[in-house]
Amino acid sequence: MLFPYGSPDILNAISSLGYAFFLFLNAVQADFTLTTKTGKKAWAIGLTSVLTPIAIGYLVIESKTFFPFWESILGNYEATSLLAVVISHSGCSFTVIAQFLTDLGILNSEIGRLALSSSFVINLSSGIFVGIGTAIFKSYEIDTLMIMMNVIYYIAFITLVPLVGRPLLRWVERQTPEDGPVNKIYTYAIIVVFLLLGFLAGQFHQPFLSGALVFGLVVPEGPPLGAELIDQLDLFATWFLTPIFITCCTMKLNLTLLPATPTLVAVILFVIIMVHLIKWILCISVCRFCNIPLTDSFCLALILSCKGVVDICSYMTVYDTLSQSEEAISVMIISVLMVGTISTFGVKTLYDPSRKYAGYQKRNIINLKPNSELRIVACMHKPSHMIPIKNVLQLCSPSLGNELVVDLLHLMELVGRASPIFIAHHHQQKKGGESSHHNYSGEVIVTFNLLEREYAGSVSINTYTAISPFTLMYEDVCHLALDKFASLIILPFHIRWTEDGGIESNDNNIRSLNTMVLERAPCSVGILVSHGGHRNSSNYNVAMIFLGGHDDREALCLAKRTFKDPNNNLVVYRLLARDRDITDWEHMIDDEALREVRGTYVKIENVTYEEKTAEDASQTTSFLKDIADKYDFIIVGRRNGIKSSQIDGLENWTEYSELGVIGDLLASPDMRTKASILVVQQQHTTTKS
Fold first, then answer.
1. C-alpha–C-alpha distance, residues 251 and 255, integer Å
2. Which residue among 151, 308, 579, 686 is least packed, with the fewest CB closer than 10 Å?
């Protein structure tokens, strides 16, 4: 009633083209260079996970010992098709795994990166084997010569297309101006070549989709070319035609036939369970051999077992070639839903990537030994963040006995690719240059190399580039801080003001990232608020506002490093409440933290200590307005959740909770300050149970 005779075929033909574009775009997002970058661990996991189940399945199903048994209970047609069930469930789709990891928020995690590499190996190797198998199967009834010719044509196709296409497409990229759009003629030419290669694949008995996949892998991922193709085609192909194609595919099935064939259903379920158990055992065994924890090994096995949209469409392609019965395909599609559900719940329950950031070790400034180096992870997103970050590093007064070790992380949004990238530029320089045609963070590297030379012997700077989705960038930041034993992470605030007080940029993605890092960071965190204005001088007037609490004590320790440069001037303001309890334990700890500043340090010419009494929030606000424009830098503690009479009621008016009450007040346009503000949160420590 819904679809008159003939209309499903028309709809299916149109949406099939959309699905071909969907596969093409997903292949474009895959990093073809993973074939050379992938380590031995991923190759071992990938190859054993796909080849061993197929080999065992072939022995159990097609061998002379077992095949008569399957034939006696299923019949020749169904028994012959069991091997296709084994092959289809032994592999996995890179596209499905990448989307699965993104949905779970673990794309950037260690397990996520290993799963991506392993799935690429599985997808690539199984795709090649299936292509060769298709060439043999489609020519099996003709003659041996035709089988050999089709296999040779297929191997030549998957070899020559990358060898010829990749250099040509790199040439197209070089013709595109930096940060400029790709010429439309090149985009149209790529689409035409994609269609022609799909047609050419059909000439040696390969499906049209194989041409889309091979050419998609050849197109350079990411901007400018890959990102442009995705921007032009993704909405129409992925979000409009592909869902229609999947609906058309599943409409062909009739699940009411399953109760009539219980034996077939039971056998296929047995084969599917056997294949996945073998994959799990092999994956866990290889992972344990590589010293991966058991829980993580099992999670990786679950991830590599996951099925999705691409697998359903592949099953329906097999069904259309009459290689499988309707009942068998129905069971396989139901198994996709079951395996996907089990994998999702299993990984969510067992794997928590943030657990490694739990603060069992004290990694903060207050616990550093005297005259020890300060390790900082400084993050930036835009060129406008370079100067403020550079100013903060200079503020720390690097010198002999007050050394800085900086890991500078340039964060870029993942566009036009499926797999995240993490580049250590100092490793590339040791190898003699960039390992790819992309030149990431070139201006950043040059700027901070000059800073390192300016402070030779007292500053060490290593530059990194992380390209990942904004929702998962916190993983790169926290992992680098954990790996480099950092005591402080510096993050730029999401709003940047111009010199006249107007808003230059406002990025809520950066704000979300800052919030997630504050919650998960394995060390202390500083959020840098810049009000515009680029300073050429490295001499700073610095104010530190101290109310009390662990965040303020951490901020004080950072402030005490600034006056080691005699050209910097530090003023420490302590805001006291009239109703303070001098016997309170926190108050006593605060007094001890300030003891040196009030005593020894105050004798130094460039250090001043002042105590101010603030009865209520209005007096605190007035005091901040008085000093806001007198300094180049103001350092404060975040003091999240700490209440005191000096700020009572102000927390209800706080617009940016990540800055705390004092930081939010200072960042407000009403303050009319040009000072940069650094809001410090001390590491959240955890007690081992």
1. 10
2. 579
Cis bond upstream, residue 224 (ω within 30):
yes
| Whether the Cβ atoms of residue 150 and residue 135 lie closer than 8 Å to each other | yes
The residues that bridge with 2 in the sheet, in sequence order, are none
C-alpha–C-alpha distance, residues 305 and 311, integer Å: 11
Q: What is the pLDDT of residues 299-357, one digit of tens each?
A: 999 998 888 888 888 888 777 766 677 788 888 888 888 888 898 999 988 887 777 66
Q: What is the CATH number of domain 365-427+443-681?
A: 3.40.50.12370
- The reply to whether the predicted model has a pTM over 0.90 is no
254 DSSP assignment: -
Q: Which two tokens stand for residue 592?
A: 């001890």
Token pair belonging to 127 = 């795709």
Bridge pairing between strands 495-497 and 503-506:
antiparallel
DSSP string, 622-650: HHHHHHTTS-SEEEEE--TT---GGGTTG
Three-class DSSP category at 496: strand
User: Cβ atoms within 10 A of the Cβ of 320, count?
Assistant: 14
Q: Does the CA dihedral 561-562-565-570 come out positive or negative?
A: negative
What is d(CA 420, CA 112) in angstroms, rounded to the nearest whole number?
A: 10
CA distance 522 to 360: 9
Residue 90 — left, alpha, or beta (φ > 0 → left; ψ -120 to 50 → alpha)? alpha
Amino acid at 583: T
Query: What share of the chain in percent tops pLDDT 90?
Result: 9
Query: Can you read off the two tokens belonging to residue 171?
Result: 């040439």
Q: Which helix (H) or strand (E) holds 421?
A: strand 421-424
- Residues above pLDDT 70, as percent of the chain: 90
How many whole angstroms separate alpha carbon 31 and alpha carbon 161?
A: 16
The domain spans of the chain are 17-351, 365-427+443-681
Task: State the pLDDT confidence band at 407, using cuts at 50, 70 and 90.
Answer: very high
Give Cβ neighbours of residue 572 (< 8 Å, ≥ 6 apart).
Answer: 543, 544, 546, 556, 559, 594, 597, 607, 608, 609, 610
- The C-alpha atoms of residue 140 and residue 134 are separated, in whole angstroms, by 10
β-strand pairing of 404-413 with 421-424 = unpaired
Q: Give residues with Cβ within 8 angstroms of 443, minimum separation 6.
A: 383, 386
* DSSP code for 422: E
Task: Give whole-number Cα distances, 65 to 61, 77, 269, in Å.
Answer: 9, 18, 21
* CA dihedral (313, 315, 319, 320) positive or negative: positive
Q: What is the pLDDT of residues 156-194, one digit of tens each?
A: 888 888 888 888 988 888 888 876 778 888 888 988 998
Domain spanning 17-351: which CATH class is it, in words?
A: mainly alpha
CA distance 407 to 402: 17
CB-based contacts of 365, cutoff 8 Å, min separation 6: 374, 487, 488, 524, 554, 557, 558
Q: Is the pLDDT of residue 429 over 70?
A: no
Whether 292 contacts 115, CB under 8 Å: no
